[in-house]
Write a structure and sequence with these properties.
single chain, alpha+beta, 239 residues, 4-stranded mixed β-sheet, 2 domains, globular
């Protein structure tokens, strides 16, 4: 057994995440990364809008609470021109003290209960919105496992983004000359996300091309206006 594996077995996950978080904070400081902290009430006549169903599963009620809490913390956060936006910088650590509850999380290929479970639906919504609005994706991590059938998905395969405190963030850069604002809310059993902008956004055509590698494995290419922006491999697994 390697040293890194032994350390992973000995050191609690929360400690490892905290260490990774502070290492990332230090790198951001050294790189003079400015995420901004502003909120805005900016509105436009025709906001870009995406709606996703919130699927029933174990810890469903807690997932609703986590999504509602994330909506409070992330909605109306703005991205100024030439600025970077970070999921964890804006949300903060998903703890009970920050208003989050235990929910279903996929860890090392197995389902487990983690505080903040269900937030990957929120990060996937934001990633889908970012692709639809021309934001540059600086950091995004796909799920390696595909645990859903097509009729169960809340987002197209390839439009997902997983987030893990301390290790996996979701970050966007605004290349436009005007401010963009995320507006997020829960409407009954649906998560609704919008992008508001001071000026009309250009049109961005999204396509997620799926190619079967074998019976359990798919390659998905995310295309924006015919240009591939991500290529991900998913392995089908029932959990």
């Amino acid at each position: 057994m390697s040293l890194s594996t032994r350390l992973r077995n000995w050191v609690p996950l929360s400690w490892r995440q905290e260490l990774k978080h502070w290492q990332r904070q230090w790198r951001d400081h050294q790189g003079q990364q400015d995420f901004g902290d502003s909120h805005s009430t900016l509105r436009c006549a025709q906001p870009l809008r995406i709606t996703q169903p919130i699927l029933h599963s174990s810890f469903y009620e807690n997932k609703l609470k986590n999504i509602e809490r994330a909506c409070v913390l992330l909605s109306s956060t703005s991205i100024a021109p030439q600025q970077t936006w970070s999921f964890w910088h804006r949300l903060g650590r998903p703890t009970r003290g920050n208003g989050f509850y235990p929910g279903r999380n996929l860890v090392n290929g197995e389902m487990s209960a983690q505080v903040g479970g269900g937030l990957c639906q929120m990060s996937s919504m934001l990633y889908h919105l970012a692709l639809s609005s021309g934001l540059h994706v600086d950091e995004r991590h796909p799920h390696s496992l595909d645990i859903y059938d097509d009729h169960q998905r809340y987002t197209p395969l390839g439009a997902d983004a997983t987030v893990v405190w301390g290790t996996k963030d979701l970050r966007f850069f605004n290349p436009h000359s005007f401010e963009l604002v995320f507006v997020l809310r829960r409407e009954d059993a649906c998560l609704v996300g919008e992008i508001h902008s001071a000026q009309p956004l250009p049109s961005y055509a999204l396509e997620f091309k799926r190619q079967a590698i074998d019976e359990k494995t798919n390659l998905v290419e995310a295309m924006v206006n015919g240009v591939m922006v991500a290529s991900d491999v998913y392995v089908k697994k029932k959990v």
